[in-house]
Structures are given as C-alpha cells and as structure tokens.
Amino acid sequence: MSFGRKHVIFGVSAMVAATVVALPMATGFAFGSDEQISAEADSELLAAGGVETEVPVQDGEVVEPVIALDAEVEAVAADAEAAPVEVTAINDTVDADLICLTKIVRHEAANQSMTGQLAVAQLVMNRVNSPRFPNTICAVAHQSGQFFNTNAYNPSRNDQRWANALEAAIDARNGISDPVVGDAVFYHAAYVSPRFHRSRPRVTQIEDHIFYR
After folding, report:
1. Which segments within the chain are labelled E, that is strand?
2. 149, 142 in Cβ contact below 8 A?
3. pTM value > 0.85
4. Where are the alpha helices (DSSP H) in 49-153?
5. Of 74, 83, 117, 142, which shows the fewest CB atoms inside 10 Å?
6. Element at 52 (helix H, strand E)
C-alpha cells in the first residue's frame, strides 16, 4: 500500500512538472514577460483605433492619450461653425416694369457714369415704395407731369448704352447696391433751378443731377 501511495504522488508530481514545462510552448508567452507582451498587444489595438500611447511623461505627470481626429470629423466641425450665407434671388425678368425703368435711365442718364444711372433708377424705386406715388414702375413713369410716356420712346436695345441702363435698372429694382441718393424722390438737372424744388430738402448731387426729398 505504501508503494502505491508513493507511485500516485510521483505520478501527480510528474503531471504538474509536465504542465509547467509545457505551458510556455502552448501559450507563446515567456515567463516574466507576459505583462510586456500584453501591453504591446494593447498598444497595437489602441493604435488601430487612432489612439497614440507613446506620450512622453515628465516628473510623474499623467498625460491622457491623444485621439487623432479623422479629417472628415474636422471638416464637419468647421462647417458647423461657419455662419450660414443668405443668398437672395435676383429678379432679372425682362417684364414691362423693367423695360419702363431701363428706358427712364437710358433717357435721363445715358451720358453719366453707372453711379449716375443707378441714382436715377433708385429714385424711381423710392417713388414706387412711397405711399405718395403709384406702386408700380410704369405707373410712376407715366404719372402726369413727372417723367414721360415710355411707350413712345424706343431707343436701340443693341448698344452699350441700353446694356448699362438695363444693368442699373436690375440693380435698383433688386436693391443690390447701397443707396446713392438716400430717400430722394425728386431731382432735376444741375443747370436749371425749378421753383418747385427750392423749398425741398436737398439730399445730394451726383454729376449733373441734384436730388431732393
């Protein structure tokens, strides 16, 4: 019986020894280096996820890992911070009112700069927007004693003067440029001095036209 116990104990010891000897071969880990290998594996996983772990640490300071942002994420963030831009549609439809306004500009200021032409066009629009005058461009143009009958005025529409007048008309109708005549609703040529305008507040003079409220 004693021999049998020794045989069992010896057999168990031999199995334990065999297990200890076989462990490094089965797992691929060397004794005393399993923590280093585990850390290297963790570093590889973090690197694959965009986390950098090799951050220098000085004086025991704890430094958090730096997560590298994807270029797409940065682009989305930049777009979110950008202020929305309002785009105003420009009405350049060549309708009866635009033709009336272009004819007024062509007739009254074709010899002036674009600023001078825009001044006349803006004055017409000031009248359209004022309760003291008709509320359409053609009605303002044909108001008795004011401009003229645009239906009877037919200048060439194939030259630069017409193109310039059309540009000023589109600009004024859409309110694209800043006002150059303020809220003026009357004007006359600088070389005349109508009695009607003497009592009116003067706004400005642009080239050879003087503008009043």
Report:
1. 51-52, 66-67, 186-189, 202-206, 209-212
2. yes
3. no
4. 71-81, 96-109, 114-128, 137-141
5. 83
6. strand 51-52
